[in-house]
Every structure is written in structure tokens, then in C-alpha cells.
Amino acid sequence: MSKIQLVIVGGFLGSGKTTAILNIANYLVGHGKKVGVVTNDQGADLVDTHFLKLKGLTAVEVTDGCFCCNFDEFLDRINKLSQLNMPDVILAEPVGSCTDLIATIYKPLNAKNIKSIEIKPFSVIADPKRLKKLILDKNSNFHSEINYLFMKQLEEADIIVLNKIDLLSKEEKDDLIQFVKENFKNAEVLAVSAKENINIDKWIEMIFSKESAENTLDIDYDIYGQAEAYLGWLNLTATIDSETEIDINKIISEISDKLREEFIKINQEIAHFKLLTVSGNDWAKASISDISEQLSFDKRAQEISSNWDIILNIRADMDDQKLLEIIKRVLQESIEYKGGTLSVSNIQCFKPKQPNPTHRIK
Ligand SMILES: Nc1nc2c(ncn2[C@@H]2O[C@H](COP(=O)(O)OP(=O)(O)OP(=O)(O)O)[C@@H](O)[C@H]2O)c(=O)[nH]1
Ligand SMILES: [Mg+2]
User: Fold this and answer.
1) For ligand 1, is residue 164 a contact (CB within 6 Å)?
2) What is the whole-number distance in angstroms between the Cα of residue 13 and the centre of ligand 1?
3) Which position among 48, 166, 215, 265 has the lowest Cβ density within 10 Å, counted as fewest Cβ atoms?
4) Strand order through the sheet with 296-299
């Protein structure tokens, strides 16, 4: 029996992991491979899992903590995917606040000597604008511990994938590639656009032709834990009902405009805000991965409807209770004051716990 190839795609919140995974999966499926995806989050009710399923992929999730702290659940999901569709390739997306995966996933998996799995090199995606703000210009609103986490994520990469190059000039792109090459000498560096499908084939070739160097990070878990603790986390599922038909694209834009205004007012940074709405077969998805940037729609709804399911995930450098207060106000102003009814079925709001990996092998 041939081995399942396990491809892990990490990187900071909002860097483009899910977009890239979708593109890699489409490419592989187009080349006759069977693919499964494992998503991951500190909470439940994930935009990513729903989105990938809407796109026709088989996706399962590890919730309520990162892969490293839920190693057995991670293995269990790989087994589940094997039973569901015997994939040739499993693409796994660790939560964007997680690092140290070589020591906590790669090495433990190898130590277990699981015959059915072959683990491929570790790709870490970087959003170039965030990279510039955090490391090059050092002018981000994030706490310095979050910058540390961002750096550590890149340090352990076998392949650093500079994403979103469609948003850069040639000069900006060349400067950033040079910077990454000079500062992260252990990694291969590749510039791509996951959204515009630029260089995804080159990346896939790199993933399947190389092995991980498995360089264990030198990392201070107190700083790493503090970085995670600074991140307010909010996952919400709800339905919006109205007596009249709703243009959900307009509501999504209003929610995000108000949210950005609130963050700009208090000078705090969003790591990633993403929202998925579904009504029958129609759906919309949008996200903000930096307060200085406008909302970006991955897909707009095609129709108007009086009833929408909504999943909202937000991660920000903000106290969780303050984040909850802001979200409640924003939703009230964008939905309830406009005559809609918001019925919340689940809401989780917290700070991630101190990372405590199941295994850590230096
Ligand atoms: N312009 C541009 N936008 C991109 C690209 N890749 C991703 N995005 C956008 O960036 C936003 C975040 O992308 P995701 O794929 O959700 O990022 P992620 O890393 O999975 O985010 P988390 O799971 O929350 O950590 C979305 O709005 C994407 O459409 C790209 O290559 N170019
Ligand atoms: Mg994602």
C-alpha cells in the first residue's frame, strides 16, 4: 500500500493558508490525486472547514487547541480521512498562532514510525505586508511577543512561501525575497499568489521533491505563550432573519467597516477577521487581515434572501472580553438596528491557553 503524503502548511493568522490549501488541493485533484484536509483552531465553528467543504473538499478539523497540544486528535483525524476517502495526500493547516511544529509534530510522528504516513517538508506562508510591518519596518501595533511568534514560525520553515505577490510591485517583491533569503538561510524561498494561482505548481514541485531538514526551534515557551495570550479569539455562529430580503454583501461590508473603525479608533490590530454566510446554495466569504486594509471578498453572494446562516471568526491583539463587546455592538448596529434579527447559536470568546505540546522532541 502506498503511503499517505502529509503536507503541513503553517504561517501566521490571515497569511493565506486556507486559500493556498484549496489551490494545492485543486491542482492535485486535477492530477488524479485524492486529497483530504485537516483544519485546526483554538475554538470550534470554523470558517475554514465550512469553506473547504463548500468547495467540494473532504475536510475534518481538530478544534479547541493546536495540533501540537492535541497530537492524538491530529492522528485520529488523519485516520478518519483515511477511512473516509483513502487520500493520496493530506493537507493540514495548523492554527495561525502555532509554532514549533518540527519538535512537536514532525519529530514525534517520525519517532512513532507510522508506516502509512510520509511527512513532507514544512511550508510556512508569510503575508508580505505583515512581514514588512513586523520585521522590516518594525512599526506594527502588535505586542512584541507576537512579532517573536511570527519570527519563530518563519525560522523553522523548510520552505518560506511569500504569498500575495499580486499585491506587490516587482521592486517590493524583490526586496522582500532578498530580505527573507538573507535572514532565514535554512529555508527555500518562493514567492506565490495563492489567490491568483501564481507559482503554486512550483511550490508543489518543491514540496514533493524535498525532505524536511527538521531543524528544531530554539524557542522560549514563556514568550510564545504570552504572544498567544495577547490574542483575543472569538468564534460565533448565528442566523440572520428579516421580514424583507437582505443584501448580505452590503451587511458584510457594513460589519467590517464598523469593525475597522472601532479598531482604528483605539489603535489596535486585527490578526484576521473572516466571515462566511450561507443561504441555501448561495454563499459569501470575506476577510480582513490588517486594519489598514479594506475588506476583501473571496466570494460575494449572488442572491438576496431573508435568512442567512453566519459564521464569524476573529483573532485580534485585544483582550477577549473587549473584543466580545465590540463584536456585539458592531452586529447590533449592522443587523439589528437595520430591522434584522440575529439569533446566536454559539459564541466562544477566550484567550488561547499556554501551549503545552503532547510531545516535544529536540
Ligand atoms: N490578494 C491576495 N489575497 C490573498 C492571497 N492569498 C490569500 N489571500 C486573502 O487573504 C485572506 C486570508 O486568507 P486565508 O487563506 O483565509 O488565510 P489563513 O492563513 O488560512 O487564515 P487563518 O486560518 O485565519 O489563519 C483572504 O481574504 C484571502 O482571500 C493572495 O495570494 N493574494
Ligand atoms: Mg485558514
Assistant:
1) yes
2) 9
3) 265
4) 296-299, 282-288, 270-279, 305-317, 231-246, 341-350
Please compute the mean of the pLDDT values over residues 183-190 and round it to a whole number.
96
pLDDT at 139 (0 to 100): 85
* pLDDT for res 141: 87
118 and 222 housed in the same domain? yes
Q: What is the pLDDT of residues 129-179, one digit of tens each?
A: 999 998 888 888 899 999 999 999 999 999 999 999 999 999 999 999 999
Q: Whose CA is nearest to atom 21 of ligand 1?
A: 14
Of 227, 258, 291, which residue is a domain's last? 227
Give 77 Cα–ligand 2 centroid separation in angstroms: 17
- Residue 1, pLDDT > 70, answer no
Q: Which ligand is nearest to the CA of 11?
A: 1
CA distance 131 to 140: 10
Ligand 1 closest atom vs CA 288 = 27
Q: How far is CA 59 from CA 42, 53, 193, 216, in A?
A: 17, 6, 23, 29
Is any ligand 1 atom within 6 A of the Cβ of residue 296? yes
Given 209, 227, 245, which residue is the final one in a domain?
A: 227
Question: What's the whole-number mean pLDDT along residues 243-263?
Answer: 95
- Check residue 136 and give its pLDDT: 84
Nearest CA to ligand 1 atom 32: 164
The answer to whether position 89 is within a domain reads: yes
Measure 184 CA to ligand 2 centroid, in angstroms.
24
Distance between Cα 296 and ligand 1 center (Å): 9
Alpha carbons 200 and 165: distance in angstroms, whole number = 12
Query: 14-55, pLDDT tens digit by residue?
Result: 999 999 999 999 999 999 999 999 999 999 889 999 999 999
Ligand nearest to the CA of 43: 1
The three cell numbers of residue 155 are 525560522
DSSP classification of residue 258: H
Q: Same structural domain for residues 46 and 183? A: yes
- What is the count of structural domains for the chain? 2
Span between the terminal Cα atoms of the chain, in Å: 31
Contact 8, 119 (CB under 8 A): yes
Range of the domain at 325: 231-350
